[in-house]
Amino acid sequence: MHKLGADRGALCCAALLTSVLLLAGCAPGAPSSPDGTSTSTQIQPAGPSTPTSVKSADAAQSAAPSGTLRVPLNGEPPTLDPAISNDIASGPLIENVFSTLLVNNAKGQIVPNLAESWTVSSDGTVYTFKLNSKATFHNGDKLEAKDVKYSWERALQPATKAPTARDSLGDLVGAKDMLAGKATELSGVRVVDPQTLEVKIELPIRGDMLTNLTAVTTSVVDKTTVESGGASWFEKNPNGSGPFKLKVWQHNSKVVLEAFPNYFGGSPKVATIEIPIVTDQSTELAQYENGELDVARVPLPDLKRIRGDAKLSKELIEFDRAQIVYLALNQKSYEPFKKLEVRQAVAHVIDRGRFVDQILFGAGKPSTNSVPPGVVGYDPELKGMEYDPSKAKELLANAGFPNGQGLPPLQLYWNPNAPPYQTMAEATAASLKDNLGMQVQVQNSEFARFIADMNKKDVMPAFYTGWSAAFLEPNYFLDRLWLSTSITNRMGFEDKEFDRLMDEANRLPAGDARGVAFKKVNAYLAEQVPAVEIASTTYDFLKKPYVEGLETFALSWGMRPFVNVTVKR
Amino acid sequence: MIVFTIGYIAPGDPVQIMMGDYKDPVAEANLRHDLGLDLPPWERYGRFLWSAVRLDFGESYVNRGRSVGGIIEDAFPVSASIALLTTAIAVAGGVLLGVVSAVHRGSVLDRLARLLVLLGVSVPVFVLGAIFIMTLALGLGLVPVAGWGQPSNFVLPCLALAARPLAFITRMTRSSMIQTLAQEYIRTARAKGLTERSVVLTHALKNSAINIVTVAGLSFGVALTGSFVVETIFNIPGIGRQAILAVLKRDYPVMQATVLTMTACFVLVNLIVDLLYAYLNPRLRY
Prior knowledge:
Chain A is built from 19 helices and 19 strands. By secondary structure, chain B is an all-alpha fold.
């Protein structure tokens, strides 16, 4: 009797499993739930809203914003204070709520924002900005030159503890004194009149002042709001001057922005932006497919399925991201890496094309460049150390380690922030073992520990990680990672020739000559291989067809502020 | 204390994580000083204790300007409500299934119940979560995939979390009932002419109640603390996810406060279970 029971039990088991799987199989043909979220009704913004009559000639101005765009954010923003913001969750929100003098357009060019126009003195040390006279804060107060000066001074004060103020504002005359606490006023910035700001900088600077002024840190804040709000002044009413106001912030749950009709750049067309905080990538995709989100990132393993799906493949948008993936070869903690031939040998056994195809699922471009596409110095023709195992063996033998003999075992780490790094580490370990006879141990790490070890600079002999930009500026990549004096040079790469080439390139003003000089630096790095560049990555998004006007972008979270977005749902 | 010590010993530094890749050493030093991270460990722990006694947990390191108390105030009720509903489902479902299974021992119903128990115990929460998303949300469109704010958001996470405790309670109820039903006094009750329903529910079940209550209490604790996976999958702003994120970013105040809160809750639940024992079993009252 028990035997009979067991059989029937097995049958029941099979039946249950089959029915579950059948149901699961129904998933692709899912009926889109009509009203995914009950809060997605059309919301007219509070304030001077003009009703539906559109009689004035300036149609864009008087048509009231309508519709809701639902876009996910990957994590809880730790702050909304532009001076303190230094992460990828708060940055995008600040870009929509506050304004900077200048911004990047979708093509990556610097265009006016709060600054309507500007002139530069002939020696390049004095910039005079004319502010847009229509600019106001969300509460209606006019935004004037003194507000810009206040915001920058605040970011430079040591009490604010702004992590990136030195990067974007450090070249202003008087900035260094402020950062050191020696001055309370920014001497290099002068308010000429309410709409005009004179800015003096100290030459030479690395990079470009105009680029620096697109940084989120330089956003303009309202003195009264900040000073009366305490440490969390931005929580309820940040009072920025950007196209959207903060309506709701439910911590760890969602952020809701609403259109600011009096935005100096013209009222946004969409009324509300709902930003749920979604940490899990597969949930994000499921929500998109269920009609609960209008835009979603595509997790890499799902790319293939989406490319092959008739409906979803039309909704897929892919574009370059300003991020590079590389394998750092730390000369400080692994002696053999001090030899050029050893580093080149390692570079020669990594099959970048295959990595991009199989590990990144095509969401990237193989590259030996040290900067991503879109940044000056990127050369799509650059060869560098291409995949060539026999050459690698030769180089290793020349260095004195024929077939890997004499090489101590190598610990290979990977940044736990993204799964592809682990796969790449393992593939590389296998390749090094097979082709060069190196002993490689792939090591696990935990994120906080990885960061700490990376900054100690002599702990991890080799590690996979990425580097992404806040500006489309070559110095952001080249200076930071490889200049011998850089704090973030974590590979022990001290090369006088590199430093010299960088200095040379930086002396040139914007133009073709500068491009050529940076290409030269790039090529030099590809040859010296302080780190093996693997690929630049791409953003892969799904966007519903009824969303129009979404401008994609290589930086930040891949999307420019939503001023021109319309949602016809 | 243990959390503090482990947090102190473990490598990783909240300021480095916050500063990210663009490090300005002066700002870093200032922040470190501001957060009190340059003080010796015993002084830090002492300060924490002193404030904790007054229920002041300070400010989060990562989310500057937000009080830890505020974070917990927001997150705790969310997790608690999920844990409560989960336990309710687990108890109601488990008892029902267990009783039916015991009473109709050997039948198809019993086998089905035991199958469910097996699945509930062996399938991990995140697999269940994914299956529910695919079938109930995407497939049938009955509930939203994820999110928080509406009653329908409770469905998937509570179902997924309730599976395991439901399975345990079913098993426990079933074996307890089988044992009880075999006793002499049940035969007496039947002989006296009491309805079967009365026999089962009033007499037999009541005597199994103690075991059920024990498991229910434990399930609540487990549901509360094990909610991290469910909270991550379904985007729920609960305390489980908050605690884990705090550890990843080395947000020490939040770490310590969340552990304190969850421990206190656990202790409270156990106390309630103990009190219920006394009510259920007169022999245990002093």
